[in-house]
């Protein structure tokens, strides 16, 4: 496995917004992490990048093994060599990654010069090549532009080029298409899928969009309130979702072939980090809730198939 | 069913520059015509910058058109005096995309719900009853009346936004991306609420969205806009005739891994609304483009019942073909 998370717990003061997270991604594989706001998917990405201390959090328990080495407790100097190099991050808003005062090209060059030790001219050649790979029209002129001169979709491609510049093995894309129009979203998703297939990268695709998951991912981790509630192959997840939350989430998605008036919502709201219910965190909203769910926290048990579900009711079925 | 809203040749241009720079004209909405029947849900879809929000504001006369007219229940809005227009506004309301900025953070929920009465100079019989029945109508607990917006979740705030829009008993509600900033489970709650309210109150909706999947589920009829013009009007279950609608549909991922899309890459970029090409605005990106398209602007022509497309080379009505597994 390229990346293995085992029983990860993230702590902010007295709260643990992410707990018992176990998941993995291999080379050439796309793992989707889905969940709604507050499910802990972005925090998990932040933890993998080793950036939790920057936002006042810490890893309280568990391991993050990257290519066999545990990143938890690794000195910042070593982490810095991985970050932007072997592990790269693509964020939702391209402007959080781009420096608006700097021309496009040199921003892409940076990672290659820093992590691959390339000269200025070699880095430039490599950036132009990457831009062409990402189907950016006329790379040589775009190289000299400033970010504000590009459209949103083009900026997101530049951010992907920046992420690829350090020749990463693991790419984490946190809602990479959420801010984009659908036709542009489709192009960016296609680019990411092609990268994984052609270069053998491991990709963690964090999204709240079940359409994107169905289109691109091989395996999926569904998160709710900081826990992985279901881990499954993408086909199995959509055909036979096991966790009641996954089932409800799939029924929430509008589809044109649904009869009007049949969309079903999940009653209630996601509890805040300070008011988590005891037992299964989904129990107050669950249609299948049993007495046991209100007291005992279900654990995610991952079988040999790599699939698993954290639900007393589904396990008994 | 009678027409509640008739829009005829509606256009809006914005000009820019002037004193020291060359004057430039931006065509936000061009020559838009449609009718909306009482009790119907009409969806307006298109990508950012296609003019859908400007259209919503024109329909409500929050901005004035450069040309064309809007008739509401048979009355031309341009002919109304300020007082009459203000009175008419009770019957048409807007629900905003961003529930966070739509409600004044210093207002309690109670104040926010009573604001429309204050603005219109209408005195509700009993303010307490009015507030609690409005909250009840949108499925919120009456105890929230004393809360402030920051104490509510996004979904709750959007419910307040809807309750406030319904306070004065409107006939038409314009919904401008009402679920775009919400999670999908919350979106489903809001959509179900809107469906129920339409039934109970006999409302007519103009529903603006960029989400074709949602629009096809929720609406009866769909307007597809591209660069300020309607390129297609179609019943929500019809196969598209315009290549742009087809491309939009092909870019919308179904929540079903067995129906993965082969992504037909749209070439080119959306032209700027400042200098529109003489022919079809979609020509530079269209797979079916011919010389004719670049020269002559296509007009809306009938493709079937309730179905029109502005295209010189419309797609034949074929059932939707989905390529299997073409991405992997």
From TrEMBL, chain A:
PROSITE patterns for the chain: ABC_TRANSPORTER_1 (PS00211), ABC_TRANSPORTER_2 (PS50893)
Domain of life of the organism encoding this protein: Bacteria
Alphabetical GO biological process terms: peptide transport; transmembrane transport
Keyword match ATP-binding: yes
GO CC field: plasma membrane
MF annotations from Gene Ontology: ATP binding; ATP hydrolysis activity
InterPro entries xrefs: AAA+_ATPase (IPR003593), ABC_Ni/Peptide_Import (IPR050388), ABC_transporter-like_ATP-bd (IPR003439), ABC_transporter-like_CS (IPR017871), Oligopep_ABC_C (IPR013563), P-loop_NTPase (IPR027417)
The entry's keywords: ATP-binding, Cell membrane, Membrane, Nucleotide-binding, Transport
Annotated localization: Cell inner membrane
SUPFAM superfamilies: P-loop containing nucleoside triphosphate hydrolases (SSF52540)
UniProt topology in membrane: Peripheral membrane protein
Family annotation (Gene3D superfamilies): P-loop containing nucleotide triphosphate hydrolases
Residues annotated as domain ABC transporter: 3-250
PANTHER family: DIPEPTIDE TRANSPORT ATP-BINDING PROTEIN DPPD (PTHR43297:SF2), OLIGOPEPTIDE TRANSPORT ATP-BINDING PROTEIN APPD (PTHR43297)
Family to which the UniProt record says this protein belongs: Belongs to the ABC transporter superfamily.
UniProt cross-references to NCBIfam families, sorted A to Z: oligo_HPY
Protein name: ABC transporter ATP-binding protein
UniProtKB/TrEMBL annotation, chain B:
Membrane topology: Peripheral membrane protein
Species this protein is from: Aminobacter anthyllidis
GO annotation (BP), single: transmembrane transport
Protein's name according to its UniProt entry: ABC transporter ATP-binding protein
InterPro entries, alphabetized: AAA+_ATPase, ABC_transp_ATP-bind, ABC_transporter-like_ATP-bd, ABC_transporter-like_CS, Oligopep_ABC_C, P-loop_NTPase
Keywords, comma-separated and alphabetical: ATP-binding, Nucleotide-binding, Transport
Chain ranges of the ABC transporter domain: 5-252
Family, per entry: Belongs to the ABC transporter superfamily.
Keyword Ribosomal protein: no
SMART domains: AAA
């Amino acid at each position: 496995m390229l990346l293995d998370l085992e029983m990860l717990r993230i702590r902010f003061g007295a709260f643990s917004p992410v707990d018992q997270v176990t998941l993995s991604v291999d080379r050439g594989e796309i793992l989707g992490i889905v969940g709604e706001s507050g499910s802990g998917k972005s925090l998990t990405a932040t933890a993998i990048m080793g950036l939790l201390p920057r936002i006042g959090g810490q890893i309280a328990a568990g391991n993050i093994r990257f290519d066999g080495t545990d990143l938890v407790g690794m000195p910042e100097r070593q982490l810095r060599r991985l970050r932007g190099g072997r592990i790269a991050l693509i964020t939702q808003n391209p402007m959080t990654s781009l420096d608006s005062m700097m021309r496009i090209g040199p921003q892409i060059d940076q990672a290659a010069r820093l992590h691959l030790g390339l000269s200025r001219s070699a880095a430039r050649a490599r950036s132009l090549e990457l831009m062409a790979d990402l189907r950016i029209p006329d790379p040589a002129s775009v190289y000299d532009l400033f970010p504000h001169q590009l459209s949103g979709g083009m900026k997101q491609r530049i951010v992907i080029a920046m992420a690829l510049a350090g020749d990463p093995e693991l790419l984490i894309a946190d809602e990479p298409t959420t801010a984009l129009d659908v036709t542009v979203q489709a192009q960016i998703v296609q680019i990411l899928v092609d990268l994984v297939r052609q270069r053998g990268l491991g990709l963690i695709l964090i999204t709240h969009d079940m359409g994107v998951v169905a289109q691109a991912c091989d395996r999926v981790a569904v998160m709710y309130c900081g826990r992985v509630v279901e881990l499954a192959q993408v086909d199995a997840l959509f055909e036979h979702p096991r966790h009641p939350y996954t089932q409800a989430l799939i029924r929430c998605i509008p589809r044109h072939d649904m009869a009007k008036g049949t969309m079903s919502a999940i009653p209630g709201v996601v509890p805040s980090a300070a008011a988590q219910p005891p037992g299964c965190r989904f129990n107050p909203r669950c249609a299948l809730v049993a007495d046991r769910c209100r007291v005992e926290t279900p654990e995610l048990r991952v079988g040999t198939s790599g699939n698993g579900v954290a639900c007393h009711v589904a396990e008994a079925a | 069913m009678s027409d509640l809203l008739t829009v005829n040749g509606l256009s809006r241009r914005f000009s820019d520059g002037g004193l020291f720079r060359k004057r430039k004209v931006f065509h936000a909405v061009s020559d838009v015509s449609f009718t909306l029947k009482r009790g119907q849900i009409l969806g307006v879809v298109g990508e950012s910058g296609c003019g859908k929000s400007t259209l919503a504001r024109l329909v409500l006369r929050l901005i004035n058109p450069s040309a064309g007219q809007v008739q509401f229940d048979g009355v031309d809005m341009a002919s109304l005096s300020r007082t009459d227009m203000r009175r008419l506004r009770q019957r048409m309301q807007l629900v905003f995309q961003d529930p966070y900025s739509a409600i004044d953070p210093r207002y309690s929920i109670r104040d926010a719900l009573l604001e429309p009465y204050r603005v219109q100079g209408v005195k509700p019989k009993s303010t307490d009853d009015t507030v609690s029945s409005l909250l009840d109508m949108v499925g919120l607990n009456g105890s929230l009346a004393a809360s402030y917006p920051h104490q509510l979740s996004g979904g709750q705030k959007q419910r307040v936004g809807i309750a406030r829009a319904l306070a004065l008993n409107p006939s038409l509600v314009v919904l401008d991306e009402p679920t775009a900033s919400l999670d999908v489970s919350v979106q489903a709650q809001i959509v179900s609420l809107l469906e129920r309210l339409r039934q109970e109150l006999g409302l007519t909706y103009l529903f603006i969205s960029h989400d074709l999947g949602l629009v096809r589920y929720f609406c009866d009829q769909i307007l597809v806009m591209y660069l300020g013009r309607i390129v297609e009007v179609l019943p929500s279950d019809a196969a598209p005739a315009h290549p742009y609608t087809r491309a939009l549909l092909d870019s919308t991922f179904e929540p079903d891994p067995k129906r993965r899309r082969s992504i037909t890459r749209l070439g080119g970029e959306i032209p700027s609304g400042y200098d529109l090409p003489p022919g079809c605005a979609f020509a530079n990106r269209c797979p079916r483009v011919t010389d004719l398209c670049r020269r002559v602007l296509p007009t809306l022509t009938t493709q079937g019942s309730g179905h029109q497309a502005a295209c010189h080379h419309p797609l034949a009505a074929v059932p939707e073909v989905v390529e299997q597994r073409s991405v992997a």
